[in-house]
Structure formats: structure tokens, C-alpha cells
TrEMBL record:
Organism superkingdom: Eukaryota
Family annotation (InterPro entries): DALR_anticod-bd, DALRD3, Rossmann-like_a/b/a_fold, tRNAsynth_Ia_anticodon-bd
One Pfam family this sequence matches: DALR_1
Protein name (Swiss-Prot/TrEMBL): DALD3 protein
Domain DALR anticodon binding residue range list: 409-549
GO-annotated biological processes: arginyl-tRNA aminoacylation; tRNA C3-cytosine methylation
Gene designation per UniProt: Dalrd3
Lineage: Eukaryota, Metazoa, Chordata, Craniata, Vertebrata
Molecular-function annotations in GO: arginine-tRNA ligase activity; ATP binding; tRNA binding
SUPFAM superfamilies, alphabetized: Anticodon-binding domain of a subclass of class I aminoacyl-tRNA synthetases
Length: 549
């Protein structure tokens, strides 16, 4: 059709432009009560600040009612209300424009113009991962998927060695590269050692200190505090002082360096290789995703890398720090594998209580495994990464029951699969005709409150939700950044709640009477789009949709 997909941001820009004021005055409504009367509101307080006496000229109101343009939702009218200026949309037209379009294009074809190296030091630690390591690992995996969905190239570091936690990663459906870090790693380590020898703030073992002065595995020590002061760096822990440089630390930096170099080589637009002094490092950035317990050690490595390789990419290192993971009722320190097995057993027991004794076949094993992964990912990722998480190992309800759990999301996704499977079998029996093309559907049949909620709060904004969750804004100062990845889990939970409420209230596949088909077809088109949103968003969590529960 050539139509641009409607978007919240484009509509808000048009509405704000129509008011002719620099401030952003309009807000999108989302609550069911307010959506009965309006879709967008310019609140009275904001209007009072922008217009003398809060009075909006009639010609301005008329201009709001006639806004349009690419990506702008169709406006039915604008009127003054006690709450402010209220805009209502032409809803059947909005349904047509969102449900009648083919799926939007994915990321642009061709090599990514921007690359991000995501470094998760948790995989460098002890062989047995703890829940706090798991949080950083799952966040890194999720962020990688979100970035890729926006067309950003991603390199994951470190490569998983032969002794790595492969079993836990496989159970949690974490896709992580394996290997030794590349054939060029020994040369890179040697180059870093040479650079280390040139540092004025490094003290080597050979400089008359004697073997007793440094631990056996230390190559030398470097003075971080003086480097921070000389460079005028901000945001680092004031307790950083002397760092003992070991072979393992240099191997970690060498692998990071190799990953950055590979990103630059694969990016034809990158100027870092030939014009490094002019490059701002925007074509490849490095983000360290760490638990708060490991933040200090990562800052040490950050500074060491800056000392040894003073390029644009090291200057733009950023740290994404996860808050603590508090485990209640542990009989002993619990590992990630024990945590997974515990939640899996609880998920199985909860499923037996709900559905009766389960068949011990491969299909149900796969369902329980998927529900367990969903429960753990939502438990770890639905809280802002800066905040503390509390895992109650005895209380399984947060994981297996209620509307806040990953299991609830997967259950509603499965309900949609069952609906369309039931419809397809009815079509094959001749009970219903096949679903006509979207261009032939009558979307004015969609008048139920829950239908507009599903379209306006989920189908419309979901591309922007994923885009915003993948943003890694550069801080004004310091080295910490914040990612709002928790909005993805919250989006899925809220979508599941509103879909469940609608589905419990409205009978989709009614009696096979021709005069009822128009409404049934429009509803199936709407719910098919809801299903596609579930699938697209769940993919960023490495969760496959379930066809049954």
C-alpha cells in the first residue's frame, strides 16, 4: 500500500507541532477509563503554562483536529474539556491502518553501521555460576537480542572456554560463542605486555623489587589513581589505587581488543582503522555488564585498557551495573544450576496441580523446560537492572502462578495458538470460511473496549518499546549507563493481562452464521497481530512460543 506504519512518536510530534509551542504538551492515554473518552490529552496545567490564561485559540484547536502526515494516526476531533485538550482518533481507520498493513520491515539489509561489544565478566569467574552472575548474563543475552532487532551488530565476550558453564547456558537458552578467543590472541597479549613496559606508572618485578614484593602470578603493578587524576576521569571508585597485572587480566583485555578490531573490520563505514585520531568511536562501543559485586574489579580492567590502548573505543567504555541478587532461605550458597533445577521442579509440581498428572513424554518435558526458562528470565529481567532482586527459593508462586510471572505470559501465548489451531481445523471441516485478506475486512465491527486497548496500548507502540529498550544513552559524565530493558517484560505481562481479560469476556469463534462472520474475521485479524507481537517480543528473550500448555 505504501502507507507508513502509524507510530506514537510521529503522532505526538504532529500534535505538538499543531499547538505551535516548543514544549511537548501531549500525552498518550493508556488507562481503560480515560480511553472511553479520549486517546491523547494536553493537560490543563500544561496548557496554562503555554497559553495566556490557558485559553487555546480556536484556530489552533482546529489545526490540531486536522493534523496528518506519515506515521500520524487519523484524528477524528479535538475539544476543550475540564482535563485539557482532548483528541479522539478515527478508530476504525486506525484499526485498518495497523491491521491492514503487511508486517513492518525488519532491520535494514547489509552490514550493520554500528557495533556493540557486550562484555560479561561473570563468565570469567568460577566454574559454578551464582544467581548474581546469572542476572548479568541474562541481561547481556537479552540486550544482545534487542540490539540485533534494531540492526546493530553485537559481539559477545568472553568466548566460553571448555570448562565454561555450558550446561546452564544451554538450559537457559543463552546463545553464547565458544572457543579460545581467536588465533591472534597470543600476539595481542604480547603487544599488551610491550605496551605495559612503556607505562611510566608501572612498576615491574625486575625493577629491583625482588620476588617477594609481588605475588608469583603478577607481571607488574600499575598505579591507577595517578592515571585517573592525570586524565581527569570521573565516575571511578575513589578507592582505586594499585593494580597487580596478571597474565589472565591481559588475556581478558586482548580478547576485548580482538572483538573491537573484528567489529571495525566488518564495518565498511568505520574510520577507526585508517583515521583513528579523527574517529569518535561511534561505530563500535564497549559495554561491560557486571554485577555490583564485580564493578570494582571491572573498573580496574577498564583503566588498565585505557592505559595500554589509548584509542577512541577504550575512551568510550561504559559500565552497565546490575543490583544485588538476595537469596532468601538458602540452606547453603546456591549455584545457577541448582536454582534452575529447583524452579523446574516447582514448575512441574504447579503444572500437575493445575492439569493433573502429566504425561512423561518429550512434548511435556519441552513445555516444562520452556516455562522454567520463562519463569527465571522474568524473575531476573522484569526488575530494573539497578535495583535489588530477592529470590525466595521456598516461595515458587512468583515463578509459577499469578499475572506477574513468565509462565502466565507463555500460557496466554499458548491460548492464542490454540485459538488459531481450532479455527484452522474448523475451516478444514467447512464450519467457517477461510480468513479473507485484510483489505476486505470491516474493522468498524471492532467496538469492544478491550479491542481498542490491545491495538492502542500494544500493537501500536510495540516497535517503539523494543527500540527504546535497546537504547544505551551516553551519560553526561561518568562511566555508568542505564538500559530500560525491564520495560520488555513489563510490556509482555501487561499485554497478557489485558488479552486474558478480553479473551475471557469475548467469544471469538461464534456460531457459524454468515451475518456474524464480519466481526469474527476482524477479531481474528486483531488477535493474529497480537500473536505476532507476542512472538516478536518473546524472541528477544530467547523464548519460543508454545503451541500447547
Amino acid at each position: 500500500t505504501g502507507e507508513e506504519r502509524p507510530a506514537v512518536a510521529a503522532t505526538l510530534r504532529a500534535l505538538n507541532g499543531a499547538l505551535g509551542r516548543p514544549a511537548a504538551l501531549w500525552v498518550k492515554e493508556s488507562g481503560a477509563r480515560n480511553l472511553r473518552h479520549r486517546d491523547f490529552l494536553a493537560p490543563r496545567a500544561a496548557l496554562s503554562a503555554a497559553f495566556p490564561g490557558g485559553e487555546v485559540p480556536a484556530d489552533v484547536v482546529a489545526g490540531v483536529a486536522s493534523v496528518g502526515g506519515p506515521g500520524v494516526l487519523p484524528v477524528q476531533g479535538c475539544q476543550e474539556t475540564p482535563a485539557g485538550l482532548a483528541v479522539r482518533l478515527r478508530r476504525p481507520e486506525a484499526f485498518r491502518r495497523l491491521l491492514g498493513l503487511p508486517p513492518g520491515p525488519g532491520p535494514a539489509a547489509g552490514p550493520p553501521r554500528r557495533w556493540v561489544v557486550l562484555h560479561c565478566p561473570a563468565l570469567l569467574g568460577p566454574a559454578a555460576l551464582r544467581p548474581r552472575h546469572l542476572r548479568a548474563l541474562l541481561l547481556t543475552d537479552h540486550l544482545a537480542q534487542l540490539l540485533r532487532a534494531q540492526g546493530v551488530g553485537v559481539r559477545l565476550v568472553p568466548a566460553l572456554g571448555p570448562e565454561g558453564s555450558r550446561q546452564v547456558l544451554r538450559q537457559l537458552r543463552v546463545e553464547w560463542p565458544s572457543g579460545s578467543g581467536g588465533s591472534g590472541l597470543p600476539d595481542a597479549v604480547s603487544a599488551l605486555k610491550q605496551a605495559l613496559g612503556q607505562l611510566p606508572c608501572a612498576t615491574a618485578r625486575e625493577q629491583g623489587l625482588g620476588r617477594a614484593a609481588l605475588p608469583e602470578d603478577a607481571i607488574c603493578k600499575v598505579h591507577l589513581r595517578s592515571f585517573v587524576e592525570q586524565q581527569g576521569l570521573v565516575g571511578y571508585d575513589p578507592n582505586l589505587d594499585v593494580l597487580l597485572v596478571t597474565e589472565k587480566k591481559l588475556q581478558t583485555l586482548a580478547e576485548l581488543q580482538q572483538a573491537v578490531l573484528q567489529c571495525m573490520v566488518r564495518n565498511p563505514w568505520c574510520c577507526c582503522l585508517s583515521l583513528s585520531r579523527h574517529c569518535q568511536g561511534s561505530c563500535c562501543s564497549v559495554v561491560h555488564v557486571v554485577s555490583c559485586e564485580e564493578e570494582f574489579q571491572q573498573q580496574q580492567l577498564d583503566l588498565l585498557w585505557r592505559m595500554l590502548d589509548p584509542g577512541a573505543h577504550t575512551a568510550l567504555q561504559k559500565h552497565l551495573v546490575c543490583g544485588p541478587v538476595k537469596v532468601t532461605n538458602p540452606s547453603s550458597p546456591i549455584g545457577a544450576d541448582q536454582y534452575f533445577q529447583l524452579r523446574k521442579r516447582q514448575m512441574y509440581e504447579a503444572s500437575v496441580m493445575k492439569y493433573g498428572e502429566l504425561a512423561q513424554d518429550e512434548a511435556w518435558t519441552e513445555v516444562i523446560d520452556t516455562l522454567t526458562v520463562a519463569a527465571i528470565r522474568f524473575e531476573m529481567l522484569s526488575t530494573a537492572h539497578r535495583s535489588q532482586i530477592t529470590l525466595d527459593l521456598e516461595d515458587s508462586s512468583i515463578s509459577t502462578k499469578g499475572t506477574k510471572s513468565g509462565a502466565f505470559v507463555m500460557y496466554n501465548c499458548a491460548r492464542l495458538a490454540t485459538l488459531f489451531d481450532t479455527y484452522q481445523r474448523a475451516v478444514e471441516r467447512g464450519t467457517y470460511p477461510p480468513l479473507p485478506p485484510a483489505s476486505e475486512l470491516n474493522f468498524s465491527c471492532l467496538r469492544e473496549e478491550g479491542e481498542w486497548l490491545l491495538l492502542f496500548n500494544y500493537l501500536l507502540p510495540f516497535p517503539e518499546v523494543l527500540q527504546q529498550a535497546a537504547e544505551l544513552p551516553t551519560p553526561t559524565k561518568g562511566i555508568r549507563i542505564t538500559a530500560n530493558t525491564e520495560t520488555v517484560c513489563k510490556f509482555l505481562i501487561q499485554l497478557s493481562m489485558d488479552f486474558s481479560s478480553y479473551y475471557n469476556r469475548v467469544h471469538i469463534l461464534g456460531e457459524p452464521f454468515p451475518h456474524l462472520f464480519d466481526q469474527m474475521f476482524a477479531r481474528l485479524q486483531l488477535l493474529g497481530a497480537v500473536r505476532d507481537v507476542f512472538h516478536s517480543v518473546l524472541a528477544t528473550l530467547h523464548l519460543p512460543p508454545l503451541s500447547q500448555i
